[in-house]
Amino acid sequence: MRPVVSVFFADKKLECDTDPVSSPSHYTQGAYEVIDIIQASMTHEAFLGYLLGNQIKYLMRCQYKHQDGGIQDLKKLTWYANKYIECVGQK
User: What is the pTM of this model?
Assistant: First the structure.
């Protein structure tokens, strides 16, 4: 079964470099990144909470998930922290 978002955006492709932290290929299958769709679906305050929750998630599991000592998850935590900082001043 294809994801719902892919059905709507099947004719569009992103042209960008991907990496497992900033732009994972499994999050960029259509014209929009998943984070942008999530942000558009929430209030500003709810999105800030989402960003904080993801920081906690990556911190709590960083030493258990990957064989890199947690570096990839800590980079993801940093990505979400930077996104929070970017968004906290917006409204």
Answer: 0.69
Which amino acid is present at 14? L
Q: Chain-wide mean pLDDT for the chain?
A: 80
* Separation between Cα atoms, residue 17 and residue 9, nearest integer Å: 19
User: How many residues in the chain?
Assistant: 91
Place of tokens 């999050």: 27
Q: Determine contact, residues 77/62, Cβ cutoff 8 Å.
A: yes
CA quadruple 78, 86, 18, 9: dihedral sign: positive
Whether 25 contacts 18, CB under 8 Å: yes
81 within 8 A of 55, measured Cβ to Cβ: yes
